[in-house]
Specification:
single chain, alpha/beta, Nucleotidyltransferase, domain 5, 2 domains, binds zinc ion
Length: 326
Amino acid sequence: MIRVGVDLGGSNLRAALFTDDSATPTRVIRQPVGSQRDPDAVCSAIATVVEELTAAHIATVTVPISVGVGVAAMLCDRRGTIANAPNLGWRDIAFGPLLASKLGDRFAIGIYNDVNAIAWGEAAFGGGRGAADMLAVYVGTGIGAGLVTNGQLVEGTSSCAGELGHCKIAWGADAAPCACGSRGCVEAYAGGASIMQRIKRDLSDGLSLATVVLAGGIDAATPSHVDQAATDGDPWALELWQEMATALAVAIGNALALLNCERLVLGGGLLGRTPTLLEHVLAALEVVAPRAAMTPLTIVAAELGDDAGLVGAADLARRGVSIVGA
Ligand SMILES: [Zn+2]
């Protein structure tokens, strides 16, 4: 079945056409979101790209073509209303209806949180294949997650399910402030942005000369350098990674206690490049997560990389999940 997946980020708009049952797109268009980022202009740009991708097929299909859009945003219903998309500067936007009005009734549109689309891509075609109950956790600049229960994506009543990054691992006046406006979220401790701040601060305080030497300077230091330093046995790097791993394991372990998953998929730009941190996370999970949740669990790496969101959004729309106006 012909379907289109769209990934709308803060910088780039990507769209992929799928014409068979595989996760391999027939054609992909990628373009910058550009300076015109008001919702009307962005919806027009998406509509143009979708029409270009489907031009050769539109005359022959007898049912509306499914278009799934994953957007880096906090949604607030199942009809594509965006409460907040910080990267686009949007608040309270009827994004789904606006896009539907541009594309018309030849298309059936579903709007999804980007991490949920990515998680569904992994569930249907990647590391979560074959598992009816799956948790996918992504550690990059922030921390996101998507969950699948009984073979269905759990979007939640207002499409906000899976916000593992904003689950609390601390509370009170001393809890770390988070970008979401709250405190004590695991993302405020172990998200990539927080880790970078911590690395710069600790290295400026002279806590690890080895890491500074590996990086060629404090300002050049990244989590990859810390990972190398930890692999080499640097005490500061090992201690920092143990602290980060424990924070992640507490949040993930709590989710596993709640969900009793068959599969845990781990991915994201940070965890994918820090193998020693990943080892520490896996070891900490064994200690922190309940035995009953760990025994039936298989832990795997995310498989689909950058295409997961395109594949997932297209497949969710094809399955009729949260279609605008339906
Ligand atoms: Zn938060």
